[in-house]
């Protein structure tokens, strides 16, 4: 089923409510969500194109000669316009053509410098410019069952990759070698790409939640933290496992159990209507009461979909309520600079009656 | 030799000339160039930290708990400050501490929404905010011999990877399989990562200059276009080869020769003092005179360094002059939607007396 017309209809209804004549879409995941156009930006300076969505009528995809054929093949409901001299001259022609008087743009995905150029253009055309954040993201936050099924496929492929590489995580290997093996396996098994740079951290390196895999060689008895995600057909996975190669000592076992209890406490609380804050607190309380409250520095989790980090944020600061169909990570951790770190991360779907675990892999969770 | 103090000195001199009290550095390559801190951003929304460079005195690196250990290890000349509640509260404390009255920021690497938040903060602290573009980039555009040597290493590793994978580019293989093999080989040979998503395009797919490798299977006699780059120790390579698996027909041979002649014509013109426009025109003239003027839609080349696309731009619109020590690609092409495309890309160093070719691989260039 093609969901793009329905998504477009909902966005256009929202544009009409806001009395906007059109919206300029620059965010790559929003662009894909609305049009089906799968091209990736090479960083924020090298856009593969933008959408111009009028409040009424057929929308436009503007791109350059490098992408025009792909845009025509993929963005079926769109007029594809080729711009040859950059986006601004393209818009200079199109905005008056469509009679745009009030143009929204994605303030959270347009550089200050580009917004300045757009401002000049709008002024010269007497178009009012309206910076917006989160006009498309709220549409994306609750997933359809089809999207959930694609996310589940990504999670299951993620577990398959992990299980394939796991037996090769042996003393003598470097963090970098293992990260490489994981990313190679992802690609061989058909993932589009990793959803972020794979984290493999040994021993004290695991104290850095975003450690970069380096030349450090695994020694028997050391902690291994693997945080990995992939993109499959546009949708992301994200999973963390922490384990010991060899026999874990009592300190590791105790701390792992605390992190796992924190994860289960959060999962117990998750259901439609609960605030993000309550979920974060449920996990944090377990860690605090075990005496590690100062060593869990990050938020408990985040939404996952076309982006690996998207709304909602399971943070102690967020009073937003979970809704059925949201997909989030649950990833408590304990990090001690001189010792190392433990993080466990699974993905769940928020349901009316509780949470549905997307992961099936239980290795190392129940020590 | 540690170049960071010298780079900092030059930047601080430029801040003093502009009467700025400090500069906020958000661009990842600029951050690395000035501090040696190698962490990567996970997209523009997930910064691994920012620099605050006062016009006088020791600079600061602000980051969160995920990166603070790495920052302390790598950014030796910097005070590393941990911020726990986001960048803005961190700056709210630090700006008055340093007596900042006039703060520059990188308009081309700060989102409109983030600039809005920074504007509110600045107003509350009575700090004047100055959007800047290209304050650090001009320092980076001319490379030191040490940087050139690192770029050369990246180019040579790039060629080694290409030569390793080349024999496996046979009928029956898909674009995607070959792109995968190339990226795996890069990582196995010690590259940090690809410098962009590898392009492998067969037959008519090569008509898209930024084709995404797909399931298309190579047939004997078809064109193969490979555009690949890697990052080695932070510095980038970028190389394109186009060839035929089997016996090239006379049309392919003729068009390849035109593209190669265009490349050589540009290289003949390149030297310190020549405008970017003149170089672009030298290649474009060859293609136009051969009757393909409408089928070379992109600029001739771009600078390469810590970023794979950086200044200068070898474009027909640029009247900027080349300077000795710049490193640029020379990549003319011919693209015909119903036929396919040919692009040849090498990297050269601009010298006073001409250009120095960094590539050694001559395969397919001289058919």
Query: Helical content of chain A, roughly?
Result: 25-40%
Low-confidence stretches of chain A: none
Largest interface: pair, residues per side: A-B, 47 and 48 residues
H/E element sequence of chain A: HEHEEHEHEHEHHHEEEEEEHHEEEEEEE
Find the count of extended strands of chain A (DSSP E, 2+ residues).
Answer: 19
State mean pLDDT of chain A (0 to 100 scale): 95
Proportion in β-strands of chain A: 15-25%
What's the domain count of chain A? 2
Overall body shape of chain A: elongated
What would CATH call the architecture of the largest domain in chain A? Alpha-Beta Complex
Written description of the protein model:
2 copies of one chain form a homodimer. In chain A, helix 9 runs antiparallel to helix 10 (276-289). Chain A starts with a helix and ends in a 10-residue tail after the last strand. Chain A is built from 10 helices and 19 strands. Chain A has 367 residues and is α+β, with helices and mostly antiparallel strands. Chain A has a 6-stranded mixed beta sheet, with helices on both faces. Chain A has helices at residues 4-17, 28-35, 68-74, 87-97, 112-125, 137-141, 145-165, 175-188, 250-269, 276-289; strands at 22-25, 50-54, 60-63, 79-82, 102-106, 128-132, 193-194, 199-202, 223-228, 230-232, 235-236, 239-244, 301-303, 310-314, 327-330, 333-336, 340-343, 346-351, 354-357. The first copy, chain A, is elongated. The interface between A and B is large, with 47 and 48 residues.
Ordered list of secondary-structure elements with their pairings:
The structure is a homodimer of 367-residue chains.
Chain A: H1 4-17, E1 22-25, H2 28-35, E2 50-54, E3 60-63, H3 68-74, E4 79-82, H4 87-97, E5 102-106, H5 112-125, E6 128-132, H6 137-141, H7 145-165, H8 175-188, E7 193-194, E8 199-202, E9 223-228, E10 230-232, E11 235-236, E12 239-244, H9 250-269, H10 276-289, E13 301-303, E14 310-314, E15 327-330, E16 333-336, E17 340-343, E18 346-351, E19 354-357
Parallel strand pairs in A: 1-5, 3-4, 5-6
Antiparallel strand pairs in A: 1-2, 2-3, 7-10, 8-9, 9-12, 10-11, 13-14, 15-18, 16-17, 18-19
Helix pairs in contact in A: 4-5, 7-8, 9-10
